[in-house]
Design a protein that fits this description.
Elements: E1 5-12, E2 16-23, E3 28-35, H1 44-47, E4 86-89, E5 99-107, E6 124-133, E7 139-147, E8 152-160, E9 167-172, E10 175-179, E11 185-190, E12 198-203, E13 207-212, E14 225-229, E15 240-246, E16 251-257, E17 263-269, E18 276-278, E19 283-285, E20 288-294, H2 297-313, E21 326-328, H3 330-333, H4 339-352, E22 356-359, H5 381-384, H6 388-397, E23 401-406, E24 410-412, H7 416-420, E25 439-441, H8 447-462, E26 468-471, H9 493-511, E27 516-519, H10 529-534, E28 537-539, H11 546-556, E29 565-569, H12 583-590, E30 594-597, H13 606-628, E31 630-633, E32 642-648, E33 654-661, E34 672-673, E35 683-686, E36 689-692, H14 693-698, E37 701-702, E38 711-721, H15 724-735
Parallel strand pairs: 21-22, 21-30, 22-23, 23-26, 26-27, 27-28, 28-29, 29-30
Antiparallel strand pairs: 1-2, 2-3, 4-9, 5-6, 6-7, 7-8, 8-19, 8-20, 9-18, 10-17, 11-12, 11-14, 13-16, 14-15, 15-20, 16-17, 24-25, 31-32, 32-33, 33-38, 34-37, 35-36, 35-38
Helix pairs in contact: 8-9, 11-12
The chain binds (2R,3S,4R,5S)-2-(hydroxymethyl)piperidine-3,4,5-triol.
């Protein structure tokens, strides 16, 4: 093609490289995202492209076809006609812009994103490109940050209206990347309430594909995440390019394969029902997206995201602290409880060794079922037989920490708050707003509503001895409208709602740093990097069935660290699917994440209670490894019937391996489970046996025969020798019939 490249601009992490090309025309392109190569001039990546037919020439220059190029942050129709990264409507009604390079700057300090979640680390390199549209004077600032030790990059974008008139931003994405190939399979996380985060892998086809949310939250049915893998990529090898949006509202995650087998990857605020009026000198800041590339398969992708989320995004002082083993009363009592019943449960919780008791929904206002009282965040003193403070004191006297459930974003019609402020409901004038679970949503775009929640919850947290808060959200947003926004700003609602929520969370979590916050949205309906910035853990799903949880937790931990996933042992038959699984299997699966119990301990046999107490004691010993260990998904013989994972501590001398077989089968030949990334020459103790790392990785552990359905096996491995000479002695001793 007829292209001249002026400069190649690089951004590096320890092992990765992101390279840009600055064309003579001022257009900014991508050259490369992948393993670090140290090459300087990559201009040939676009210069050697052969021209395609029937595409517009750019700037009147023959065979300079922008639509064929891997563009860094394109608009639409000048002359690229693929899906744009940004779109504006200008005062004259036109939608075409032309942003070209002005300058770029490297820094080692990152500015916080105002009002939004953002990642940061000590060793970072920030690269910001300034682009300008000469006709309007408007600027786009593309900010990329390289997290050196994490091999992760982030991107966010700022739009500056430097013209004299207001414009409307119709689309302004956070992450945009063009790949010059479509030989990829795409992975998304999909599902529904109770079926969150099922991993969905399929080949790319020409056209647009992906997932999005229009629900006012990231949602149960889709997660703001996309991964692209080559057909041969497995858990342990192969190329992966993946991105996730650190945002909790409506999003778009799309891949567009164009006419020439190129793939455009996009992630950002969903342009659907979004429009932002930007006056002269006003600025719009997009949320941030995190992305990475690896050649070592999906486990490596997950481990990189886990470290990045834990160390660069989550700020809570609880982040690295052992998380308490909790008992939550929800599935034990639902709304049907009083002080006596809860205290009886709490005493049992203490006996089994739990550390935190969580009082779930139903403690406030006149709440006896889900039809009332949301908004009235004061105790139902009849139910609690006194004040909340006295109630909490009783729990504390049992030697337990105390946790409380709230659902602040919501309002019941039958509540004092509604009587006082019916106008605070999200609704369209002259239309009846829809209820979901009998509740309305509070208009968090309004400052007085935000202030009210901050004040009421601050008072609740300040005047009570609360260690943990479960922040729930049990419906999505309908009837989108705010009476305080002008007609031309109504499509700002969904983003303003999230900004309002973030302001409330910022104020409360920063003031009450001692409280361990867990967010929840009917389970994993808002499990995203945005919420993790404020709350270091999230309730993974309302489906507590062990078998269902294997799939949900596997998908969720594809990007999110296991310690961020709330996982509880519940009763059998399971309340959501009616399945009966053994206590052992339920426990192994719940211990993959942030562990607790959510069953009626008063209805558990003495033997089971004894077993639970042993499991709790054992978990306490292994807690550091189970909560903060590095996790691998292990390849299994039959993916449809098995799942296995391995966790290893930081010192690399302790491991836990878990294998779950869903259906027992007659007369199956024994299969082995091969472990990953052990030290080949080290010796590991497994019960009475010793094996070398090499043996464990190449031959593996014998999986016991499943004697019933939903059969779980756990191995605990400890490194005993890491000296080569000693290994031989050990092996000799074992082989000579020791
Ligand atoms: C939905 C949550 O996910 C459950 O755990 C429970 O807290 C209920 N809400 C209470 O209404």
């Amino acid at each position: 093609m007829n292209i001249t490249v002026n400069e190649t601009i690089h951004l590096y992490t320890t092992h990765s490289q992101l390279s840009f090309l600055l064309l003579e025309s001022g257009h900014l392109c991508f050259a490369y995202l992948g393993n670090r190569m140290e090459s300087s001039d990559l201009g040939y990546v676009v210069e050697e492209l052969q021209r395609a037919s029937y595409l517009a020439d750019t700037d009147g220059r023959k065979d300079f076809k922008l639509e064929q190029l891997p563009l860094a942050y394109p608009g639409y129709g000048n002359p690229d006609m693929r899906s744009p990264a940004h779109q504006e409507i200008y005062a004259d009604g036109s939608m075409v812009s032309d942003f070209r390079y002005v300058s770029h700057e490297y820094t080692t300090k990152k500015q916080p994103l105002k009002g939004l979640p953002y990642a940061t680390a000590e060793m970072i390199t920030c690269l910001t490109f300034k682009l300008r549209d000469e006709v309007t004077g408007n600027e786009l600032h593309l900010s990329y940050t390289a997290y050196e030790a994490y091999d992760v990059f982030t991107q966010s974008v700022v739009f500056k209206n430097l013209s004299k008139t207001s414009i409307r931003l119709e689309e302004i994405l956070s992450f945009h990347f063009d790949l010059l190939s479509d030989k990829f399979e795409m992975i998304t996380l999909n599902g529904a309430w109770g079926r969150e985060n099922n991993s969905n892998r399929r080949p790319l086809v020409q056209g647009t594909q992906g997932c999005d949310s229009k629900r006012g939250a990231s949602g149960h049915g889709q997660n703001p995440f996309l991964a692209f893998v080559t057909p041969e990529t497995t858990e342990t090898s192969g190329q992966v390019i993946a991105a996730t949006l650190l945002y909790s509202g409506n999003f778009k995650a799309a891949a567009e394969v164009d006419m020439h087998q190129n793939t455009r990857i996009q992630l950002g605020i969903n342009p659907f029902n979004f429009s932002w009026k930007l006056g002269p000198n006003e600025v719009f800041q997009t949320p941030e997206a995190a992305f990475l590339s690896t050649e070592h398969g999906l486990n490596d992708m997950s481990q990189k995201f886990h470290r990045f989320f834990q160390e660069c995004l989550i700020r809570s002082i609880h982040r690295d602290k052992a998380r308490p083993i909790l008992v939550n009363n929800w599935e034990a009592t639902y709304f049907d409880f009083d002080k006596e019943k809860i205290y009886m449960l709490a005493r049992e919780a203490k006996k089994i060794g739990a550390e935190l008791f969580v009082l779930d929904d139903g403690w406030f206002g006149r709440r006896e079922d889900d039809t009332s009282s949301l908004g009235d965040w004061f105790a139902n003193e009849e139910k609690l037989k006194g004040s909340l403070a006295e109630f909490i004191e009783g729990i504390r006297e049992m030697g337990l920490q105390f946790g409380l459930w709230i659902e602040p974003e919501m309002l019941s019609e039958n509540s004092r708050l509604f009587e006082k402020h019916p106008d605070w409901v999200v609704k369209i004038p002259h239309r009846t707003p829809q209820k979901i679970r009998h509740q309305y949503v509070l208009d968090l775009t309004r400052k007085e509503v935000q202030d009210h929640l901050i004040q009421v919850l601050d008072a609740l947290f300040s005047t009570h001895s609360i260690d943990y808060v479960k922040w729930d959200m049990n419906r999505n947003l309908t009837d989108i409208y705010s009476s305080t926004l002008s007609e031309d700003r109504q499509q700002e609602f969904s983003h303003r709602y999230i900004l309002g929520l973030y302001r409330i969370l910022e104020e409360l979590t920063q003031k009450h740093t001692n409280i361990l916050f867990e967010s929840c949205a009917g389970g994993g309906g808002r499990f995203d990097g945005g919420m993790l910035f404020y709350t270091p853990q999230i309730w993974t799903s309302d489906d507590t069935d062990a078998v269902e949880r294997v799939r949900i937790q596997k998908g969720t931990s594809l990007i999110y660290p296991p310690v961020t996933m709330g996982c509880h042992v519940s009763a059998v038959p399971n309340h959501q699917v009616g399945r009966t699984t053994s206590l052992e299997t339920r426990t192994l699966i719940a211990q993959q994440g942030n562990f607790g119990y959510e069953l009626d301990l008063l209805n558990v046999s003495a033997e089971e209670k004894e077993l639970i107490a042993q499991q709790v004691a054992c978990y306490k010993e292994e807690r550091q490894l189970l909560q903060f260990g590095k996790q691998w998904r292990l390849p299994v013989y039959d993916e449809s019937n098995e799942s296995a994972w391995q966790k290893m501590n930081e010192a690399k001398d302790e491991l836990v391996v878990v294998h779950i077989q869903f259906m027992a089968k007659a007369n199956t030949v024994s299969k082995r489970l091969r472990l990953l990334d052990l030290e080949p020459d080290a010796v590991y103790q497994i019960g009475k046996e010793q094996r070398t790392g090499n043996e464990l990785m190449k031959i593996g552990l014998m999986i016991p025969r499943a004697t019933n359905d939903y059969f779980g096996t756990k191995w605990k491995l400890r490194k005993v020798v890491d000296n080569h000479a000693n290994i031989k002695i050990d092996q000799y001793a074992r082989r000579s019939g020791d």
